[in-house]
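Record pair follows.
FIRST:
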Amino acid sequence: MSESLPEADTPADTALPAPRPRAPTALVVLATLAVGYTLWAAQSVILPVLLTMFFALVGNPIIRGLQKLRVPRFLAAMLVLLGGLAGSGALAVQLAGPASDWVQQAPQQLRQISRQVQALVKPVQQANQAAESFARAAGGEGSRKVEVVRTQLDDPYKVLVRTPKLAASALAVVLLTLFFMIYGQNLQRHVLALLPNRQQKRFTAEILRSIEHEISRYVLTISVINVLVGLALAGTLVLLGIDLPDALLWGTVAALLNFAPYVGALIGIALMLLVGFVEFRDPLTATLPALCYLALHTLEGQLVTPVVLGRSMAISPLMLILALMLFGWLWGMVGLLLAVPLLVCVKLVLTRLDGMQGWARLLE
C-alpha cells in the first residue's frame, strides 16, 4: 500500500515575478514629443550647459596631467581656461580681417562666379527657354504665372537686442566651464553620496570614472585631429598660392566642420570650390582646393581616426546621419557640432549598463 506524497508548499518568495507593466504606445509617443519640444524650447539654457560640458571634457585630461606635476586643480583649471581663451582670442583677431573682407566681397565674387557658371550652362538655359515658350504658346496667355515679390525691412533693433544675449551666453559658458573643471569631482562625490549602500556607490563611481575618462580622451583626441586637419588644409592652401590669413580662415572653418561628419565634408567641399573659383581663373586649378580638402578628409576619416581611437569609438554611419539630422534640426550649427560627441557619450553609457549592451551594439 503506497502512501501519497504530500504536496510541496510553494513559498511566497519563490513565486514568479509579475510581468512588468508596459506603457501604452500613445503615451510613449507623447512623452517623446514632449521631450523633443522641451529640448527645442529650452535650447537657450541647454546649449550653454552642453558646450560647458564639452569644453570641460576637453580640458580634464590636461588638468589631470598638470595635477600629476603637483599643480593644484584650481590653478590647473585656471591655466587651461585662460590658455584656451587666449588662443581663441588670438585666432579671432587673426581671422577677423580676412572674414570681413570675404563678407564684403562675397556679393561681387558670387556674381562673377554666376556669370562663369551661366556661360557653362547656357545651352541648357536656351533649351529650357525654348520649352517654356512652346508651353506658353500651347497653353495661351492665361497660363502665365503671377509672381509675388515680398520685401522685408531690416530691423536695426534686432542686433541691439541679440548682442547682450550673446554676450551673456558666452560669459555663462566661460564661468560654467571653470566651475565644472574645478568642482566637477566634488559634484560627482555628492551625487554618489545619495545612493543607499556602499556597493552601489562603488559600482556607480567606477562607471562614472570610466565613462568620464573615455569621453574626455575621445573629445580631446578628436579635437586635436580636427585642428591638425585644419592646419594641414591651411598649409596646402598656402602652397597653392593663397594668402596666409585667408588660408588660416578656411583651415579654421574646416576644423570646425570636421566635428560634423559627412555634412561638414559636403559643406567644406562646396566652400573650397567657391574659394578655388574666386582665387583662380583656370577651371582645372580652381578645383584643386576642393580636391585637396577631399583627400585630407578621406585620409583622416578612413585611416587616422580609426587607428587612433580604435573600434570602441566606432559609430554606425546611419546613426551618425540620423543624429546630425536630429540635433541639427533642434539646435542648428551648434547641434551639428555636438551631435557626434553626444552620440559617443550615449554609446559609452549604454555599454557600461547591464542589459543595455544590445542597444550599444545597435549604434556600432
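SECOND:
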Amino acid sequence: MTSRLAQACLNSIRWYQRTISANTAPHCRYYPTCSMYAYQAIERYGVLRGGLLAVLRLLRCRPWSRGGIDDVPQRYSVFYRFSWSKAHEEPRLTPLANES
C-alpha cells in the first residue's frame, strides 16, 4: 500500500506520460524511460528513496551519455552502479520480457 504522497507522485508521472510524453518525439537514451524509471522507483521504495533514485537517473540522462538498460536496483542504494557497493548489479544487455 502506498502513501497519499506516493500515489500523488505516481499519478503525476502517469499524467506526464499520457499527455506530454505521448505528444513529443521519443528521445530517451535509457530503457526504461526516465519517467517509467521514476514510477518504478517510487512504487518500490517510496517518495524519498525512489525520488532520489529518479533524480540521480535524470542527472545521468544527458546528450553525451551512452544510455542503455538501466533498471531500478533490487536493493536500495544510491551507489548501486559502482562495483564496490554491496548493492551493485551488473547492467543487463537485454530488457526483461515481462516488463511493461
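COMMENT: The radius of gyration is 14 Å.
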